[in-house]
Structures are given as structure tokens and as C-alpha cells.
């Protein structure tokens, strides 16, 4: 057990590409966790997709040793879909490194994390990274940190994670400036569950931060929210390699295993206590995260259904925040209705299914959950799927979930952000200014936010705006089902529920994008958006009369074959609608609202 005054717990806050992963790797290397050779791959982002997309999905932690101290580095995901996991990771720390690129300066994308960190009373150490770059302007960046964020940057550490400059200074600053955790070794065990994941060898691994008391192998522990009791069979930490420890005391961060089969039994934010001598109260802040966005996932090839079932079940073992149940569709056959924390979460799961499990999938239009009261006391339904929408004359009322969003944005981008909120049926609740930045509070229908609001917000503000939200309940709305017809045939995977006031804009945007996304055929293809029997937007794809190989001059046979092969491959990923083939990408791409909404 490590004495409290020898422990420091911290996270790293950084804008994308400012060097968080490189710096984390350097800290691990300098403190002896890994050899140069083992450093070749970035260690913290250990999932393939995380690496490719350059984002951190699952919180991870590494235990470092520096001058007689234990430093626990907590990695945090950087997307609003995973806001709850971030909040729990931050709650497990006493400080943070704020990494800012010396050439780019403060790009406020992670402002929300900085403010959360400040809210948790963290000691924040500014680190100005990439000072090796000729374009580095550390003094200017210091001034920006003070102006935009309001932090004292006079003692910021200058570093180059790439060339290994400033690494020791950072480690020293963590020991000197970040406060040691507090805790009572004699009190009953109280530990916060920070993260959990499934490991094929160990079963469910639980990452935790001990607040009071201690945890050791052989102890019976109780999960206070779940109400279950488990026998701890392993205690340890990651350095970053797994290392077993006899116990973990107050202030320490580490992992346990306890013969738990599914991550669903180990929810982030739950409190672990001793089963025989339980704590009186659980820790504050436990929240059951619920999926908010639903969509159907169908195999392109119907024969892949069983494979899809197996793959989804495997992914679910590792991710309790996503849900699935079987669904059948007239056009798409057998598939699953799945629930996600947001659109990025959806895309990650979809990509993992396609890449790790080699499945070709069709994703239907994402939807939130609507509440419908039926006429004549017909009861109540929670609508997860636009395809199940009852006939309009059977609906008494339909309600949709609303959120309250808080947006931080520099003044210069405020105008376009306010317009975006307005276009998405937002109701402004508050607008204040703090040091050149505006803080806008809006109530918005979740339906208008789940598709691409976050991406739009980022692009309109060049990445400066940050955004956080909470659900505030259901409100009645004038909502209708908009169907899409391709060559006169309804494509139920693209039907969606929209507000009547935005139906036309959304319908027009959708048919225009589909016109770009669906390849030309040998005949004319009308594309229509309709509400009930009424067409609200229409585009036509003109007929094609060209042989694709015609442009291969000179009869180069290999080139010709390649082109035909490519065409064949493309075909495999298309879905036939009547006589029209729709490429798989079109399904998701068509749902992005783009600039027109
Ligand atoms: N010149 C220079 N380049 C650096 C330095 N630190 C990181 N880089 C480079 O900057 C790029 C981004 O670094 P990462 O460590 O992946 O950045 P990150 O903040 O973890 O990015 P995300 O994982 O996307 O959030 C990489 O190409 C690094 O090699 C530095 O000190 N100097």
C-alpha cells in the first residue's frame, strides 16, 4: 500500500494532435515502464480504431514511479458521447496536465474538459508542447492560456514530447504541484468504479479509485448500486504491463478482477464497499447511462445474420452502454435494433463490426425514442423505430426528448452558432460573456442534435466551440414520419421522424444528397421525400448509357479486368431496391444534414 503523501493522480487534457499520446508514452518511457523497442506503438490508445481515428475511446490508466512517488496517469476519452466516463475519470484525479501545442496555441476544443477539471478543483499544470518546431511561440501561447482559459501560465512547463525535452520537469511538477489524495485507511472500504472492460483471459477487469479503506485479494466486495457481491481474486495496476499487487489503499488507482462475466454488472460510477463492513453511503454521482440513439443494423448478405448476432454479442460483452434486440424489416430482412450513447458511438460500433468481424452492414436512419399516446385510450408506446410509427389517425400525441445544452464559443463565431441552434429549433435560455468567450444555454430537441450537431458546431467554430448537455425530459411536438422513395419504392431504412416545420428542408437535403450518392443506372431514377402520400421534395438521377470500360483506351487487358473487378466489388456492397442499387455509404451519408439545415 502506498502512503497517501506519495501518491499523485492526474489526467492529461489536450486538443486533438497537440501531443497527448506522445507525451504519455514519453512519461511511461522516462519512468521505466517500457523499453525503447516496446515504445514503437503508442501504448495508451490500444484499440485499432482508436489509433486510426486518433481518438481515445476507453479510459485507461498507467501507474508510474518517479522519485519515490507513485503517479497514476488517467487517460480520458475526448468526445461528448462519452461525457459521463470523462466525468468519472476526472473525479478520480487531483490534477491535470493541460497540453497545448506551441505553434497552434489554445484550440478550445477541449475547453469543456478544462472546465470540468476546474470544477473538480484540480490543480492544472500548463504544458506547452512541440517547442522544437520552428514556428513555436511559447510566450504567445502562455498569454492565450491566461486570456482564454484564465489560468496562470507563468510557470508552464515547456516540452517537446517528440524529442524528449521537458519530460523530467513535467514529472517533477506533478510531484510538487498536484496535491496528494486524501482518504481514511481505517474507514470501511469505499472505491469508485472508474471503468470496466472485458479481457479474454481475466474476464471483466474493473478499474477503480480507492477513496477510503483498502481492497485486497480474497475480500468480499459489494457493488452498492448493482447490489451484487463478488469475491476479489486479483488486485493490481498497469505499468503499463499488468502487475499484481497485494492490496490498494486510499488514494490509489488500480484494477481488480472478481469473476464477473459481463461488463453490464460493473457499471461506471458504482461504489464498491466491503460486504462484511459496508460504508453507510455510496459515493455521489452514480448515473446509469442509457442509450439515446437507436438504429437498425442489417447484414448486406442475409446469410451473415448469425455472424452478426455473434459479433454484436461479443462487442456487448465489452460495452455495457450499447443495447440490441432483434428486428425484422420488409426490405432488409433480419437484423438488430441497437441503442448507442450518440452518433460517434454508433459509428465506432458499426466500424468495429465491419472491420474486426468483417461484416458488410446497412445502417438505418438513427432515431431517438419517441413517446406516443394512442387515441381512444389505446395506450402508450415508446417508439424506437420510425418504421413502427402508427397511422397518424391513431396518434393522440407524440413527444420527443429535449436536452439543455451549454455551449462555450469565442465571440467571433457566436453568430453562426446561434443560427445553428435556431435552425435546430433551439430555445435560447441564457447568454453570457466571460473574457472574450460567450456561454450560450439552449434547450434543443435531442432529435436535432444526434445527427451532426457536434460536427457542425466544431466546423462552424474552427474547433473552438465546446458543448455539453443533459436530458431534460419529453415535450409534445408536431412530428411526422418522412419517407424516402427511390424509383417509386419506399426505402424504409431511410425513413425518419421529423418536425413538420423542418420536414421540407430535411427532405430536400436528403434527396439532393442521395442524388449524389446513388450511382447512375441505365434508366432514370426519381428520388422523392414524402409525408404520407404527399411528395415534399424530388430529384431525378438521369440515365446512364456508357460502358465503364470504354474509357480504357488501347485495350489494356489487365487494366480493364481491374476496373471490372472493382465494379464487381462495389456491387457486393450495394443493396438492391427494386431495380436500383444503393451503395452502403449512402445510408449514413444521406443522413448528414450538411449546410442546408
Ligand atoms: N514536432 C513535434 N511533434 C510532436 C510533438 N509531440 C507530438 N508530436 C506529433 O504530433 C502529432 C500528434 O501527436 P499525438 O501524441 O498523437 O497527439 P494526441 O493529442 O494524442 O492526438 P489525439 O490522440 O488525436 O488526441 C504526431 O504526429 C506526433 O508525432 C513534439 O513535441 N514536437
TrEMBL record:
Residues 5-182 form the Tr-type G domain. Its EC number is 3.6.5.n1. GO terms for molecular function: hydrolase activity; translation elongation factor activity. Its main location: membrane. It catalyses: GTP + H2O = GDP + phosphate + H(+). GTP binds at residues 17-22, 129-132. Keywords: Cell membrane, Elongation factor, GTP-binding, Hydrolase, Membrane, Nucleotide-binding, Protein biosynthesis. It is an enzyme of class 3 (hydrolase). It is a peripheral membrane protein. Pfam families: EFG_C, GTP_EFTU, GTP_EFTU_D2, LepA_C. CDD domains: EF4_II, EF4_III, LepA, lepA_C. It is found in: Cell membrane. It comes from the Bacteria. InterPro entries: EF-4, EFG_III/V, EFG_V-like, EFTu-like_2, G_TR_CS, LepA_C_sf, LepA_CTD, LepA_IV. Belongs to the TRAFAC class translation factor GTPase superfamily. Classic translation factor GTPase family. LepA subfamily. PANTHER family: TRANSLATION FACTOR GUF1 HOMOLOG, CHLOROPLASTIC, TRANSLATION FACTOR GUF1-RELATED. NCBIfam families: lepA (TIGR01393), small_GTP (TIGR00231). HAMAP family: LepA (MF_00071). This is Elongation factor 4. It comes from Sphingomonas floccifaciens. The lineage of its organism: Bacteria, Pseudomonadati, Pseudomonadota, Alphaproteobacteria, Sphingomonadales.
Amino acid at each position: 500500500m502506498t502512503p497517501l503523501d506519495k501518491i499523485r493522480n492526474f489526467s492529461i487534457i489536450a486538443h486533438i494532435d497537440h501531443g497527448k499520446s506522445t507525451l504519455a508514452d514519453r512519461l511511461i518511457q522516462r519512468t521505466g515502464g517500457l523499453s525503447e523497442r516496446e515504445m514503437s506503438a503508442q501504448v495508451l490508445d490500444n484499440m485499432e480504431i482508436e489509433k486510426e481515428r486518433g481518438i481515445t475511446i476507453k479510459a485507461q490508466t498507467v501507474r508510474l514511479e518517479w522519485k519515490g512517488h507513485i503517479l497514476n496517469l488517467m487517460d480520458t476519452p475526448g468526445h461528448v458521447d462519452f461525457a459521463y466516463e470523462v466525468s468519472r475519470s476526472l473525479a478520480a484525479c487531483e490534477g491535470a496536465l493541460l497540453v497545448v501545442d506551441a505553434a497552434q496555441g489554445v484550440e478550445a476544443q477541449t475547453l469543456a474538459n478544462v472546465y470540468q477539471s476546474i470544477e473538480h478543483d484540480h490543480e492544472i499544470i500548463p504544458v506547452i508542447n512541440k517547442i522544437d518546431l520552428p514556428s513555436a511561440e511559447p510566450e504567445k501561447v502562455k498569454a492565450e492560456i491566461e486570456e482564454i482559459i484564465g489560468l496562470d501560465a507563468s510557470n508552464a512547463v515547456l516540452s517537446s514530447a517528440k524529442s524528449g525535452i521537458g519530460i523530467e520537469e513535467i514529472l517533477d511538477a506533478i510531484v510538487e504541484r498536484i496535491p496528494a489524495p486524501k482518504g481514511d485507511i481505517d474507514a470501511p472500504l469505499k472505491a469508485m468504479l472508474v471503468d470496466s472492460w472485458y479481457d479474454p483471459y481475466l474476464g471483466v477487469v474493473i478499474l477503480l479509485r480507492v477513496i477510503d479503506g483498502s481492497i485486497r485479494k480474497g475480500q468480499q466486495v459489494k457493488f452498492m448500486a448493482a447490489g451484487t457481491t463478488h469475491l476479489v481474486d486479483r488486485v493490481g495496476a498497469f505499468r503499463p504491463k499488468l502487475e499484481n499487487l497485494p492490496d490498494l489503499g486510499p488514494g490509489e488507482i488500480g484494477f481488480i478482477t472478481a469473476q464477473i462475466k459481463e461488463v453490464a454488472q460493473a457499471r461506471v460510477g458504482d461504489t464498491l464497499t466491503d460486504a462484511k463492513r459496508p460504508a453507510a453511503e455510496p459515493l455521489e454521482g452514480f448515473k446509469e447511462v442509457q442509450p439515446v440513439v437507436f438504429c437498425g443494423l442489417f447484414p448486406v448478405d442475409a446469410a451473415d445474420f448469425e455472424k452478426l448476432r455473434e459479433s454484436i454479442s461479443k462487442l456487448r460483452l465489452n460495452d455495457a452502454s450499447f443495447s440490441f434486440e432483434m428486428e425484422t424489416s420488409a426490405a432488409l430482412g433480419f437484423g438488430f435494433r441497437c441503442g448507442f450513447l450518440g452518433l460517434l458511438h454508433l459509428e465506432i460500433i458499426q466500424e468495429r463490426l465491419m472491420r474486426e468481424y468483417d461484416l458488410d452492414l446497412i445502417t438505418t436512419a438513427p432515431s431517438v425514442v419517441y413517446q406516443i399516446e394512442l387515441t381512444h385510450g389505446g395506450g402508450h408506446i415508446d417508439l424506437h423505430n420510425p418504421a413502427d410509427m402508427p397511422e397518424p389517425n391513431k396518434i393522440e400525441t407524440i413527444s420527443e426528448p429535449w436536452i439543455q445544452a451549454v455551449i462555450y464559443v469565442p465571440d467571433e463565431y457566436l453568430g453562426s452558432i446561434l443560427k445553428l441552434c435556431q435552425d435546430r429549433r433551439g430555445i435560447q435560455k441564457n447568454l453570457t460573456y466571460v473574457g472574450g468567450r460567450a456561454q450560450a444555454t439552449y434547450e434543443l430537441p435531442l432529435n436535432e442534435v444526434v445527427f451532426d450537431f457536434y460536427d457542425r458546431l466544431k466546423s462552424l467554430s474552427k474547433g473552438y466551440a465546446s458543448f455539453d448537455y443533459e436530458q431534460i425530459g419529453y415535450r409534445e411536438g408536431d412530428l411526422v414520419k418522412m419517407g424516402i422513395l427511390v424509383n417509386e419504392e419506399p426505402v424504409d431504412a431511410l425513413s425518419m421522424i421529423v418536425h413538420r416545420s423542418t420536414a421540407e428542408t430535411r427532405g430536400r437535403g436528403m434527396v439532393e444528397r442521395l442524388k449524389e450518392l446513388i450511382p447512375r443506372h441505365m434508366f432514370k431514377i426519381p428520388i422523392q421525400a414524402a409525408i404520407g402520400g404527399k411528395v415534399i421534395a424530388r430529384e431525378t438521377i438521369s440515365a446512364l448509357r456508357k460502358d465503364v470500360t470504354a474509357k480504357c483506351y488501347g485495350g489494356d487487358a489487365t487494366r480493364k479486368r481491374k476496373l471490372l473487378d472493382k465494379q464487381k466489388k462495389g456491387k457486393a456492397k450495394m443493396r438492391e431496391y427494386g431495380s436500383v442499387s444503393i451503395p452502403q455509404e449512402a445510408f449514413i451519408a444521406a443522413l448528414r444534414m450538411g449546410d442546408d439545415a
